[in-house]
Specification:
The complex is a heterodimer.
Chain A lengths: L1 E5 L2 E5 L7 H8 L18 E4 L2 E4 L12 E3 L11 H8 L9 H14 L5 H8 L9 H12 L3
Parallel strand pairs in A: 1-5
Antiparallel strand pairs in A: 1-2, 3-4, 3-5
Chain B lengths: L1 E5 H7 L26 E8 L2 E4 L4 E5 L12 H9 L7 E4 L21 H23 L7 E3 L2 E4 L2 E4 H9 L27 H6 L14 E6 L7 E6 L1 H4 L4 E7 L13 E6 L2 H10 L1 E5 L8 H11 L5 E6 L2 H7 L2 E9 L11 E7 L2 E6 L4 H12 L6 E5 L13 H13 L3 E4 L2 H6 L7 E9 L5 E9 L16 H4 L13 E5 L16 H19 L3 H9 L4 E2 L1 H4 L16 E2 H15 L8 E9 L2 E11 L5 E11 L6 H21 L4 E2 L2 E2 L18 E6 L17 H13 L16
Parallel strand pairs in B: 4-5, 9-19, 17-18, 21-22, 27-30
Antiparallel strand pairs in B: 1-2, 2-3, 3-4, 6-7, 7-8, 9-12, 10-13, 11-12, 14-22, 15-20, 16-17, 16-19, 20-21, 23-24, 25-26, 26-27, 28-29
Helix pairs in contact in B: 2-3, 3-4, 10-11, 14-15, 14-19
Classes of the chains: A alpha+beta, B alpha+beta.
């Protein structure tokens, strides 16, 4: 049994401790907002927060989350109105949308640490998140918009 | 015709793993993960695309796949606008694979340009019947009634569609409904919000791998490293010892041509993805590579170049090119090479299947739901109409998901397992078993007279054809492939010869966003800039001069017998050089082309999918001397733009996609197998490499709609290559610009 808090709810999981958090949240808990993209921490689609820090769920085994707090896109805000989520919708950021949960989770960690990032800060922080549709310019715009929101 | 659907079906229909709404027949809707049990509501449904409930609900079907091009925010708008409904007030239902929707292939940037008038007619049909119903109810002439905001209006009084649904359903369906005049269209051409934006931003949007069925197992497949290879020895003992692994299943090896078949291999089925992945890693399989085990892309590159250094089959001819070249004051020649590319969509292929008796139900991120019905039916030996295919959102497609191989795997394995099975492709699987963009070589030769005018143009082309995927042994480009920038290239040159060489295929060749326009526009638009340099002309002037004056071209004038024109009639979508001029003028004006001192700009323009796009790119050197695009200016004439924001965004995305391919993209082969396996060695563009700004402007047009998803791609690579030449004096004749060591 491994005890983990997931999106504010404490859970006891009887799961292989080596199972990556990606498959724990998706296959065991049914939280499918976190996406598989590469399995090797190369694309950022599976980004979640572990105690507020962005991690790649595809290479983070469950045991590393023992006694800690996991936040997925479903838990980023109670009603889906985190400033980044609003900015994403307002700017029409998504194309296919598949990478965007990971993009938003990385951006949320960035803004938590750096509330007024420059373009360079944004590019460096977001470099690990690939968007194959090429939405980078609007992602940057939306992050800056969100940074200005309350 | 009247049909009954359940209220529950509407609700489920909002998600992506949708229930297929009952079409023209009364039945309980089998929703994916649950059963629909709610009471039925009578609806008015004059065609399979529209359902208006007596409760006022309006459901409109999007029968094409959403893969980021914004089709769910576009097609329903067209239907709703004609109908007289506010697009914000309708439910969009994703259509299952069903012949009653007509063509559902989401490819060729065709979702709007091909059915535009038919989509409008669908809405107009329903509107006409609602108007008739209201006219009867009020006892007034139809001519004074108007449909808007989900109601029929007679001056200030109105009847909502829901109140008229039952009456309208009893009326005959008009054969030729009258479309609204342009001034009555309120939503076509407006910038409307992205329909799935909120679901995406909150993680609720449903892609294939997100579908959950009771008792579902998960499979991953070890596929033959080489196309048509076979497993000669399988030891599954260690795999079956992994906790959670249920079963190991060998899949049949396809016989050539590969067509829409699955690729064979050995599947490991487990309780969850992790168990299946661990099981596959523990499999011991010995492979026989088969007939393509010798494919080596470095050696093949030399064969392609040899093919374009000799005369080939003539596919387009005007005048006598050899005499004109021999008599020219000057001859310019160049060779261009573009490697295999993989789509690498962020969502690797995934599909879920449930097989029950003689029926199958599939959920898949497919670009071709009817093709998936056929392929699954063929694999299971059941009629295609007994295969239900639900289309989820696609996490990118770019042409890869036009092949239903992954859905066929899911269906075979679900049958084998006796429970629903999800097949999950890994990134490694995706890169090693894709339907690749072809590997090409081209040689161009131009003759210039003493005044620097182009008097001869010879273009030799060799690449494995997509036809080889469907017909074993096909080794010359098809007319359709050549129609992407070769047969349809406007040229004001008196002697022209286009020739193709033989190039046998050794891998699965498929469609990748803009397809053969990629290599053909790269070569042609680069070569025209080379001619500008050779004659010390401004590259824009040279481009306009080679294209010739504003005019409309026919096949005969082009020196070809059959101009494919992307399946569109030439009278409605002529080859209009004037439209090409206008985008060139606009893009160069946006970029400040005439005042470019101190900036390295490159230009390219191309017509594809009956849309015209010009791109100017500004290039600088990065920290390590690598090319960086600082800024880009794009002018596009897509004809009528249904949702201009989405069209501009497709151009932005196309720029990044094409720049990614041109900078990094290369799939290479050794001993018949793909070398690359993940984003580590198949690099795609990341945010720090993206341009600082991409400016897009659309040329106002009332021409019928052209494509939007793909036409932004072809001019990007040559525009950047031309800018790199302006910066460094070095021509780029082979892509990618940053090859990995040892790949050429």
């Amino acid at each position: 049994m491994i005890r983990v808090t997931i999106n504010g709810v404490e859970r006891e999981l009887d799961v292989d401790p080596e199972m990556p958090l990606l498959w724990v949240v998706r296959d065991v808990l049914g939280l499918t907002g976190t996406k598989y993209g590469c399995g090797e921490a190369l694309c950022g689609a599976c980004t979640i927060h572990l105690d507020g820090n962005p991690v790649r769920a595809c290479v983070t085994p469950l045991h590393r989350a023992k006694g800690r707090a996991v936040t997925t896109i479903e838990g980023l805000s109670a009603t889906g109105d985190h400033p980044l989520q609003r900015a994403w919708v307002d700017a029409g950021v998504p194309q296919c949308g598949y990478c965007q949960a990971g993009q938003i989770m990385t951006a949320a960690a960035l803004l938590a640490a750096n509330p007024a990032p420059t373009d360079d800060d944004i590019a460096q922080s977001m470099a690990g998140n690939i968007c194959r549709c090429g939405t980078y310019v609007r992602i940057r715009t939306a992050i800056k918009t969100a940074a200005g929101m309350k | 015709m009247t049909i009954a659907i359940t209220r529950r079906a509407f609700v489920l229909g909002l998600g992506a793993a949708t229930a297929g709404l009952a079409l023209g027949l009364e039945r309980r809707v089998a929703a994916g993960p649950g059963k629909a049990e709610a009471p039925a509501t009578t609806v008015f449904s004059p065609n399979p695309f529209i359902q208006i409930g007596s409760d006022g609900s309006i459901a409109i079907v999007c029968a094409r796949s959403e893969m980021g091009q914004g089709v769910r925010s576009t097609i329903p708008v067209i239907i709703a606008d004609e109908l007289g409904a506010d697009p914000a007030a309708i439910h969009v239902v994703q259509g299952d694979g069903d012949v009653r929707y007509g063509d559902q292939d989401t490819d060729g940037s065709s979702s709007i340009r091909k059915p535009y008038e038919q989509l409008r007619a669908l809405g107009a049909t329903a509107r006409a019947m609602l108007v008739t119903a209201a006219a009867h109810r009020w006892g007034v002439p139809e001519a004074r009634l108007a449909a808007r905001d989900g109601a029929i209006w007679d001056g200030k009084r109105s009847l909502p569609f829901g109140a008229l649904a039952a009456d309208a359903a009893k009326l005959p369906v008009p054969a030729t409904p009258k479309l609204r005049p342009a001034k009555e269209l309120r939503f076509i051409g407006k910038e409307l919000p992205l329909r799935d934006g909120p679901d995406v931003a909150t993680g609720r949007a449903t892609y294939a791998a997100d579908v959950r069925l009771p008792d579902m197992l998960v499979a991953v497949v070890a596929r033959p490293p080489v196309l048509f290879g076979k497993a000669t020895k399988v030891d599954s003992k260690r795999a079956l010892a992994i906790p959670g692994v249920r079963k190991v299943v060998e899949l049949p090896t396809p016989a050539p041509p590969v067509n829409m078949q699955a690729l064979g291999g050995v599947a490991v089925i487990g309780d969850n993805t992790w168990a299946a992945l661990r099981g596959r890693a523990a499999l011991e399989v010995t492979w026989d590579a088969g007939e393509h085990g010798g494919y080596d892309s470095r050696a093949y590159r030399r064969e392609l170049l040899a093919a374009v250094r000799a005369p080939g089959e003539i596919v387009r001819s005007v005048g006598d090119v050899e005499t004109a070249l021999a008599g020219a004051a000057r001859k310019v020649e160049a060779e261009y090479v573009v490697p295999h590319l993989a789509h690498a969509p962020m969502e690797p292929p995934a599909a879920i299947a449930r097989v029950d008796g003689g029926r199958a139900e599939v959920w898949a991120c497919t670009q071709d739901p009817q093709g998936t019905q056929e392929a699954v039916g063929a694999a299971l030996g059941i009629p295609k109409q007994d295969v239900t295919v639900h289309v989820t959102l696609l996490g990118g497609g770019f042409g890869r998901k036009s092949f239903p191989d992954f859905a066929v795997e899911a269906a075979r394995l679900a049958k084998e397992a006796g429970v629903p099975v999800r097949v999950q492709w890994t990134r490694d699987d995706d890169l090693r078993h894709s339907s690749y963009h072809t590997h090409s070589a081209q040689s161009l030769a131009a003759g210039l007279d003493a005044a620097g005018e182009v008097v001869a143009w010879r273009h030799r082309i060799a690449y494995p054809t997509i036809s080889s995927t469907f017909k074993a042994g096909a080794d010359h480009p098809s007319n359709g492939e050549l129609g992407q920038g070769v047969l349809d290239l406007p040229l004001a040159v008196p002697a022209i010869s286009m020739q193709t060489g033989a190039a046998p295929a050794h891998t699965r060749i498929g469609w990748l966003r803009s397809v053969c326009n990629i290599q053909q526009a790269f070569a042609v638009q680069s070569f025209i800039a080379e001619l500008a340099d050779a004659t010390k002309r401004d590259p824009r002037d040279m481009l306009l001069r080679v294209l010739g004056p504003a005019r409309q071209l026919d096949a005969a004038g082009q020196g070809v017998t059959d101009l494919p024109n992307y399946g569109m009639p030439l009278d409605r979508h002529p080859l209009d050089v004037g439209r090409l001029h206008r985008v060139i003028e606009k893009a160069t004006a946006m970029a400040g082309w005439d005042k470019r001192e101190g900036r390295a700009l490159g230009l390219a323009a191309h017509r594809s999918f009956v849309t015209y796009v010009a791109v100017v790119a500004q290039v600088v050197k990065g920290r390590h001397g690598e090319p960086r695009v600082e800024e880009a200016w794009i002018a596009a004439d897509v004809g009528i733009a249904i949702n201009p924001d989405r069209v501009r965004y497709q151009m932005e995305g196309a720029f990044v996609f094409a720049w990614s391919n041109a900078l990094h993209g290369a799939i290479t082969y050794e001993r018949g197998a793909v070398v690359q396996s993940n984003y580590r060695d198949y690099r795609v563009l990341r945010m720090p490499e993206a341009p600082r700004a991409i400016h897009v402007e659309l040329v106002a047009s009332d021409a019928p709609p052209g494509g939007a998803g793909e036409p932004g791609v072809p001019p990007v690579a040559p525009a950047i290559a031309n800018a790199w030449f302006a910066l460094t004096g070095t021509r780029v004749r082979e892509l990618p610009m940053l090859p990995r060591p040892g790949t050429r």
